[in-house]
From TrEMBL:
Entries under NCBIfam families matching the protein: PRK13004.1, selenium_YgeY
PROSITE patterns: ARGE_DAPE_CPG2_1 (PS00758)
Keyword list, A-Z: Hydrolase, Metal-binding, Zinc
Protein name: M20/DapE family protein YgeY
Originating species: Lacrimispora saccharolytica (strain ATCC 35040 / DSM 2544 / NRCC 2533 / WM1) (Clostridium saccharolyticum)
PANTHER family: ACETYLORNITHINE DEACETYLASE (PTHR43808), N-ACETYL-L-CITRULLINE DEACETYLASE (PTHR43808:SF31)
Domain Peptidase M20 dimerisation span(s) in chain numbering: 180-305
One Pfam family of this chain: M20_dimer
One biological process term in Gene Ontology: L-arginine biosynthetic process
């Protein structure tokens, strides 16, 4: 494999990739309204002579290049979040901008740049004769990730019966290779009370006061250490081999956290005692934690047990229709995943990168200092479709993608042309490096 030819081919496609990305982000593409993005991506795949291009029942686009036996996936979610307060933007988020090194617009880093590099990476494989009978490349542009990470891949795997040998997530990685992320889940606590007139609160049973007690326990989970004298041991305990057999990977990914994110109540009036109170908890999970363990942790808090049958702890469900009208319900559980540092996929991606670009992260001038200060192989702080690909389904997943994590969901979002080129080259080299 001639790595210099791969680099040259990727560089030659810079203008085409930039044009493609700018055209995608001109259309709003929030979750459940991604049709314009999908149609434009399918058009580009067909123009670049993909062997097969399909749009499934959920609205994901799947493009295949090659006819070999081993299926290798490159995934990019192509939905975006909204723009928020437009006054925080210094340019039109959909018109975007382009200069010599950058492209601006909603979704350029999170995460339409990934589909651009993956589509052109596959084309480079065909241009240079890298496709052979060993592998087929699958490039997926997936929907609804911002709403419900991984739902798209549950559909692809379970309904489409598509199961790659491994998948590269093209979420932004700041020039690095990412081998995992903390998981997350959305927990709900419901507390019952009894209303009465606010002038005599002793006649009722105030659900808000009960919830206040419970929330102090939840706060302790997040803030306490794991000392023996703590009735509620903090989540930091999962970094200790005494409490967690996966403590090494937990230390790599970082400790779990929990926070109250929403609160609701019912009351007959502002002159009455509240007769119910509910909260949503955002729970981030490290290695060794499961949805069962996280729910049991809340159920065993002292004040949850104190209020007994008046408290219900549950997990949310997501059931919003995609832009095609399909509803595919799933629990709001997004498992932790991490691919071992010595896994064949990890080693192949590192080899492909190092043969192309050396041992350190690279990037545009403004990004280099931050990037080179970090290890080449690291992890995400946020969640990705890997929660389904590897977390739920055990398919090895690894991350390498254009753009920056800090640009995700931010106003004035931008990415760098150099990242598009770098990632397209690495994607083109990876299958041959893996199948050699």
């Amino acid at each position: 494999m001639d790595y210099n030819k791969i680099k040259e081919a990727a560089q030659n496609y810079e203008a085409d990739m930039t044009k493609f990305l700018r055209e995608i982000v001109k259309f709003p593409g929030e979750s459940c309204d991604e049709k314009a993005h999908i149609d434009r991506i399918a058009e580009e795949m067909r123009k670049l002579d993909f062997d097969k291009v399909e749009i499934d029942g959920m609205g994901n686009v799947l493009g295949y290049m090659g006819t070999g036996n081993t299926l290798i996936g490159f995934d990019a979610h192509i939905d975006t979040v909204g723009i928020g307060n437009k006054n925080n933007w210094t340019f039109d988020p959909y018109e975007g901008y382009e200069n010599e090194t950058e492209i601006g617009g909603r979704g350029v880093s999170d995460q339409c740049g990934g589909i651009v590099s993956a589509v052109y990476g596959a084309r480079i494989m065909k241009d240079l004769g890298l496709l052979n009978d060993k592998y087929t490349v699958l490039v997926t542009g997936t929907v609804q990730e911002e709403d419900c990470d991984g739902l798209c891949w549950q559909y692809i795997i379970n309904e489409g019966k598509v199961r790659p040998e491994f998948v590269v997530s093209t979420e932004p990685t700041d020039g690095g290779i990412y081998r995992g992320q903390r998981g997350r889940m959305e927990i709900r606590i419901d507390v019952k009370g009894i209303s009465c007139h606010g002038s005599a609160p002793e006649r009722g049973d105030n659900a808000i006061y009960k919830m206040a007690d419970i929330l102090q326990d939840v706060r302790s989970l997040n803030e306490n250490d794991a000392a023996d004298d703590k009735e509620i041991k903090g989540l930091v305990k999962m970094l200790d081999e005494k409490y967690n057999k996966e403590w090494k990977e937990a230390n790599f990914l970082g400790r779990g956290t929990v926070t109250a994110s929403e609160i609701f109540f019912t009351s007959p009036s502002r002159c009455a005692v509240a007769d119910s109170c509910s909260v949503s908890l955002d729970r981030r999970m490290t290695a060794g934690e499961t949805w069962e363990s996280c729910l049991d942790e809340i159920r065993n808090l002292p004040n949850v047990k104190k209020y007994g049958d008046d408290v219900t702890v549950s997990m949310y469900e997501y059931s919003r229709p995609s832009y095609t009208g399909l509803t595919y319900p799933i629990e709001c559980y997004f498992p932790t995943w991490v691919i071992p540092e010595d896994h064949a996929v990890t080693k192949a991606l590192e080899d492909a990168y190092k043969n192309l670009y050396g041992d350190a992260r690279i990037g545009a001038e403004e990004t280099v200092a931050m990037r080179t200060a970090r290890p080449l192989t690291d992890k995400w702080t946020f969640s990705t479709n890997g929660v389904s690909i590897m977390g739920r389904n055990g398919i090895p997943c690894i991350g390498f993608g254009p753009g920056a994590e800090a640009q995700a969901h931010a106003p004035n979002e931008k990415t760098w042309k150099q990242d598009l080129v770098t990632c397209a080259a690495v994607y083109a080299a990876l299958p041959s490096a893996y199948c050699k």
